[in-house]
């Protein structure tokens, strides 16, 4: 199973057709789209995904003008719903069950606003280590001096909390010393803030994991796509 995670920036807007074409080229089974918005752009995106065979989609919809997560799949899944109703915008953390895999689509807020979302997610991951589970998306969080050149992220400690649950940062596990960025600021500073965390129960299922930068370089989004293959 191939999972593609991509922040499409502000709902896609006039880039929607090109975004759908870029998604099609990756032949993923499951999509986790962040900065998904409802409205005209959302309708065009869903219609385009329909044509690609992504017939199963989450129905948790962000309010007008808000960003959230859309999970779309060519495989049948069961909607579980938001990870937590205790956060202000529950449409940022969404669960589905695909076979025996519990998949969480993630789109964290910026700065310290993400703290309650991290707390909710860490609490959930702590109960899922014994089952097959994947949390993937835009976490807006990175390790100092490794996923960024400096140490600007005051919430980086949550990545240590993920590791303490037993969940594995798939890309970092595969490339422990390498530096690759999935988003760049307007100043040209690079950050790896798009991640995939897999439960210890599912570690043996992990296949290839990589970033596709072509979409970002082409201006379709300010984020690169993240792809994960699971056996």
TL;DR?
The chain has 231 residues and is an alpha+beta fold. The protein contains 6 helices and 14 strands.
Characteristic terms for this protein:
Deoxyribonuclease I, Chain A; alpha+beta; six-stranded mixed sheet; 231 residues; single chain
Description:
By secondary structure, this protein is an alpha+beta fold. It has a single domain, classed as Deoxyribonuclease I, Chain A, CATH 3.60.10. It is 23% helix and 30% strand. The protein has six helices and 14 strands. Strands 3-4-2-1-14-13 form a six-stranded mixed β-sheet. A six-stranded mixed β-sheet has the order 5-6-7-8-12-9. Helix 1 links the parallel strand 1 and strand 2. The longest helix has 12 residues. The model has no long low-confidence stretch (mean pLDDT 97).
Q: By helix and strand content, what is the structural category?
A: alpha+beta
Number of helices: 6
Average residue pLDDT: 97
Shape descriptor reads: globular
Oligomer: single chain
The fraction of residues in strands falls at: 25-35%
The name of the CATH topology is Deoxyribonuclease I, Chain A
Q: Return Rg in Å.
A: 16 Å
The side-by-side strand order for the widest beta sheet comes to: 3-4-2-1-14-13
Question: What ranges have pLDDT less than 50 throughout 5 or more consecutive residues?
Answer: none
Give the H and E element order.
EHEHEEEEEHEHEHEEEEHE
How is the main sheet built? 6 strands, mixed
**CATH superfamily descriptor:** Endonuclease/exonuclease/phosphatase
Q: List how many beta strands DSSP finds.
A: 14
Helix content: 10-25%
Euclidean distance between termini CA atoms: 6 Å
Q: Which architecture would the CATH scheme give at its second level?
A: 4-Layer Sandwich
How many distinct domains? 1
For the record, what CATH class applies? Alpha Beta
């Amino acid at each position: 199973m191939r999972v593609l995670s991509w922040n499409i920036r502000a709902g896609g807007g006039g880039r929607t057709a090109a975004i759908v074409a870029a998604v099609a080229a990756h032949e993923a089974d499951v999509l986790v789209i962040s900065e998904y918005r409802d409205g005209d752009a959302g309708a065009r995106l869903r219609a385009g995904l329909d044509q690609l065979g992504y017939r199963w989609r989450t129905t948790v919809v962000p309010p007008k003008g808000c960003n959230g997560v859309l999970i779309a799949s060519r495989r049948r899944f069961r909607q579980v719903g938001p990870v937590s109703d205790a956060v202000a915008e529950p449409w940022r953390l969404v669960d589905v069950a695909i076979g025996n895999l519990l998949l969480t689509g993630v789109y964290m807020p910026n700065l310290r606003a993400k703290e309650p979302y991290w707390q909710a997610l860490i609490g959930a991951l702590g109960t899922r280590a014994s089952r097959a589970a994947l949390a993937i998306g835009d976490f807006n969080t990175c390790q100092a001096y490794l996923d960024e050149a400096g140490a600007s992220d005051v919430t980086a400690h949550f990545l240590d909390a993920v590791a303490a649950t037993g969940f594995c940062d798939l890309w970092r596990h595969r490339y422990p010393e390498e530096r690759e960025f999935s988003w760049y600021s307007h100043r040209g500073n690079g950050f790896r803030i798009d991640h995939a965390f897999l439960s210890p129960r599912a570690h043996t299922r992990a296949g290839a994991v990589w970033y596709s930068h072509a979409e970002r370089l082409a201006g379709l989004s300010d984020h690169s796509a993240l792809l994960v293959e699971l056996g």
